[in-house]
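Review form for a predicted model. The reviewer records the input and the model, then writes brief findings.
Reviewer: anonymous (R2)
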Amino acid sequence: MMPRPDKPPHAESPDPAAPSKTRRKQAMHALQDMGEALVALDHKRLTELDLPERLVDAVVLARGIRAHEGRRRQIQYIGRLMRDIDAAPLQATLDRWAAGAPADHARFAEVERWRDELLVDATALDRFAIAHPNIDRASLASLIRDAQVERARGGPPHRYRELFRTLRAAVDN
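Model under review:
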């Protein structure tokens, strides 16, 4: 007869550096949540992420699944595929895009405010040039005059929109 070991093999203590089952499940659910976010993205944003082809195919397929259980299983599959990539940069990009909307709205409102001021106040051009010294002041003044004439005539707002695009480029720089 063989001597019995003091402890059965299944009673050995797990590696202390290994995450607990709870942590592993939390990480798995976080990847699935990120997969849900990928499914909700539009095609243009999805292509910007430079994801593996298998993952992109799984995300596109999940968009077409309407059955609850089928969609849930596809999201689980996406989470499983995401284990093979570094999820931290992906999460940072998704967070930046999610937070970007209020910042975009604020920038848009600032540009609109400048455009409205420039069209009604002659001294607004000086203030804008001080705030944004990289702007070509002469071409901006000409564009403002053209937009004012255009609005007075009631014509299509071509110069008005061009003024907005010019101001947005200056504010972005």
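Findings: The chain has a mean pLDDT of 87.
Further findings: The CA atoms of residues 65 and 137 lie 54 Å apart.
Recommendation: see findings above.
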